[in-house]
Amino acid sequence: MSVPVDRVSALSFHPLYEPPEILADGSKVRRLNLNESPFPPSPAVIAAMTRAAALGNRYPDGEARALIEALAAGSGIPPERIFVGAGSNELLAASAEISLDPGDQMLAPLPAFPTYAKLARLRGAEFVGVPLHGDGRIDVPAMLAAVTPRTRLAFFSSPHNPTGGIMTAEDILRLVQELPEHVMLHFDEAYYEFGRAAGAPDALPILSTRKGPWISTRTFSKAYGMAGVRVGYGFAGTPELALAIRKVRPNFSLSRMALAGGVAALAEPGASAALVALILKERDRMAAQLRPAGFTPLPGAANFLALLPPPGSPNLVDRLRDAGIYITDFVLGETRALRITIGDAEDTNAVVSALLENADAPR
Ligand code: PMP
User: Fold this and answer.
1) pLDDT at 174 over 90
2) Residues 6 or more apart whose Cβ sits within 8 Å of residue 205
3) Which one in 85, 321, 341, 347 has a CA-CA gap of 20 to 30 Å to 186?
């Protein structure tokens, strides 16, 4: 008897694996391909998670009241419009689940976070990808033009993964005003803190003027260095929409440790702001050192840098992996661009010298 997996059988499956920590020659592996933070959670966050672990025999608060209250206090959005999940990944899935039926269309920029396309397929919906501008920013008019009566969900992200491109206030306003009301607008702000620190507009007040349905999602994975803890959250235009997300989420998916860690992280915003500033400084330093060698950094802000390598470069992802540095790449128009997560100063130095050494090496 076959198992009923038809809807997923066409999906490719690349198990996310942990790169080795050291190479055979003993050198350290630099993990700059997953947009993680190089900095561990703060001591106060670790202490809070440790205290929570002592109650690990008891289920966590399935309503996540303490975390939602803290998020409400920090954002000015009422608690009934806030929801949380085990990383924002879970919230992207919830969004697809409440808005897509088989045969519907999901709209997203291309390239984008690959999970969007995967979620469309899982829902039996059609994924419609709209090419980015040549500099890696989302092409809002093209996205709006791609809407059909079958479009039910549209993903936007700012800063955008994998380019780092930021949507301007005018872009967001246009979206809010012109995206038809039969389309749910999902504004993915996984890199929110980096964008804001670099001058990106605050999307929430603009999103709040939308008549149709919208949610925005964020995460503790990047700016708070908590990717391994799995805490994400989001805001919805209405309490009804927030409730819909809460209903489809798996019960108790946020552990006591994750909930306590999130609350503790919000209690010391200065700690993460300092690390965000440091990461952005390293990002600028990496860009400045690579520009003279013919690399073209894309405009934007995030905890990663996207850049076009000099024409004729060999496959730099492979070359760097051989040197123990894990980065990734993506296709932008006709070219293959690199995406490098920003680590600490030593990581920047190592990446820059490896790229400079390899960029004009024979192919
Ligand atoms: N959205 C975007 C655009 C991302 O890049 C990521 C992580 N790389 C996520 C969502 C999911 O992050 P998490 O589940 O760790 O919150």
Assistant:
1) yes
2) none
3) 341
Helix (H) or strand (E) holding 31: strand 30-31
CB atoms within 10 A of CB 146: 16
Same domain flag for 92 and 185: yes
Q: What is the mean pLDDT of residues 213-223?
A: 98
If pLDDT is split at 50, 70 and 90, which confidence band does 23 have?
Answer: confident
What separation in Å is there between the alpha carbon of 182 and the centre of ligand 1? 25
Residues touching ligand 1 (Cβ under 6 Å) are: 35, 87-89, 113, 157, 161, 188, 190, 219, 221, 227, 232
Ligand 1 atom closest to the Cα of residue 35 is 8
Index of the ligand 1 atom closest to the CA of residue 222: 15
Asked if the structure places residue 97 within a domain, the reply is: yes
CA dihedral over 49, 51, 52, 55, signed as positive or negative: positive
- The CA 296 to ligand 1 mean position distance, Å, reads 25
Q: What is the pLDDT of residue 96?
A: 98
Residue 216 sits in a domain whose CATH number is: 3.40.640.10
Q: How far is CA 13 from the centre of its chain?
A: 20
Please report the ipTM that was assigned to this predicted complex. 0.99
Enter the pTM of the model.
0.95
Ligand 1, atom 2, residue with closest C-alpha: 190
pLDDT digits over 74-118, tens only? 999 999 999 999 999 999 999 999 999 999 999 999 999 999 999
Atom of ligand 1 minimally distant from the CA of 86: 14
Query: Residue 82 belongs to what domain range?
Result: 43-268
